What does this fold into?
Amino acid sequence: MTSHNSLSKPLLNVLQGRKVWPPPIWLMRQAGRYLPEFQALRAKANFLTRCMTPDIAVELTLQPIRRYQMDGAILFSDILILPWVMGQSLNFIEGKGPVLEPIREERDLNALNEEKVFEAIAPVRETLSILSQELPSTTTLLGFAGSPFTVACYMVEGGGSRDFAQTRKMMLQNPVLFQKLMTLLTRATANMLSAHIQSGAEAVMLFDSWGGILPPEEFRKFVTEPTRQIVEILKSRHPETPVIGFPRLGGIMSVDYAQKTGLDCLALDTVADMARIAEMIPENMALQGNLDPMILLNGGEPLVTEARRIRDSLKGRRHIFNLGHGVMQQTPPENVSLLVETVRSV
Ligand code: 1CP
It folds into this structure.
């Protein structure tokens, strides 16, 4: 096993097939409201402006890198930028989250334009090229997208939801329309991730936050299969660039997903028993995860014990330390320091 310090980019090395000890670490939502320096910039521009202004997006991406020397820097953006640049109206409302004009009929879908995506994400492409110049030489730059199913949930519902009932209804009552939306999103997502890679992303991650609400057959059709297609397109264009998939709340379906998609790394949520799942997936696949964000928020001895347990239970596997979901807003920033120190001390 190679030691952490001898490698220029430990995270990329793990993704490309090497074992690294101690494991590299980054956190989902590592740029966020729990950081005072994030709050300071927040007052200056609304969320979409922050995503689409390269200077601001670069600064927000770099904040957790400066503070914690994370091994991965994830582009500051959002999964809903894609529907927005295709023409769906989007606002982020304080205390409520994203609000979109819902897609419910054929003509809503026909109004979207995927041809515009590349040009419209020019500021995102610029953010990535600046980051690839400015990041420390040991940090891996990550691009990302929502999975087609998760993005479709927000597009059809018009925002967040507990059960995405409108989306499930469309799947059942108008399967042709829903499939058309999925086909469009699968292509557009692959093209957008491809643009991220061309602009400097060294690996990309697909967030499937809501796939876990589906029964098995639908999970295969709308989560596993579109993911497989995206990986196939990306590998044909960028054979060297690793792809991470995060089928949140996927349970046992995550195993099938890992086997069939061609992904390089399976990211697992908090409820997953990583060491057991590790035994069920292809041996050449890396794992990412999965500390409970609540344990991070709580800090102290329980944090140290659990972080060590997760890290040590995957010794000998290719592992990237992360949370099982995003950093929670009330997390004391010093708990993140304690976590990083714990994972890195052997
Ligand atoms: O008020 C604010 O400052 C905006 C809060 C915020 C932030 C910081 C949103 C709105 N998005 C983001 C950034 C973001 N979103 C990143 C950036 C990089 C990082 O991790 O540091 C990423 C990767 C995402 C991904 C994202 N957005 C997901 C997938 C992961 C997950 O959390 O499950 C989802 C579902 C979204 C939608 C979204 N965007 C924002 C909110 C509040 C939500 C959730 C809405 C809901 O379901 O209620």
